[in-house]
Amino acid sequence: xxxxxxxxxxxxxxxxxxxxxEDDILLYAKYARGYRQGSINLGGSDGLDTHDPESIDSxxxxxxxxxxxxxxxxxxxxxxxxxxxDQQIQxxxxxxxxxxxxxxxxxxxxxxxxxxxxATVQLMESLxxxxxxxxxxxxxxxxxxxxxxxxxxxxxxxxxxxxxxxxPLPYSPENKFVINATYLLPVDPSWGEMSASATYAYxxxxxxxxxAVSIYATLPDYSLVNLTYDWKG
Length: 233
Fold this sequence. Notes:
The chain is mainly β.
């Protein structure tokens, strides 16, 4: 009977500073340490049934602004850089019995950086437009998979991971763009608040798994259109 155990504890924090050059402008900087605990995998083989924590150092610089007048609006922009260490990676292998299974192993180090911007403008009392754009660059800088003992892994198969060194992280589209228009319906207040909105989103192509794992590793780009009617009260 196996009784795998996992215990871990790490401090996390958020340090930030902000500066108002004007009442409607905020400049800020943030540094945060993130932490994901280790865990156990009862479906994993002995020696591959536990994994350790991973950590991330996150840095962000940005600005938040508001404008008043004929067309009230906001504009926010931020740039970020993340350093991911002791990365928890999904590890696939075949047991000596020929049954395929997966484990989580600490095998990677990655960097994630990019920028995002968002804006809103109220063109009329009842019409609001908003848009946002995100650029995301991810890369697995290091990936060292643990050796799989012959007492655990089938000798006729090669273990693999869902990502690979030098490739982007799974499900991380490089570009994403969203635009929205909301119209506030001119109804009697006794009926409540009603609005209709339309949203268009574009999501860039992205890798789902490592290129060596599947010929369908990359998912194509796609667009979404959502129409919403909202009634409050």
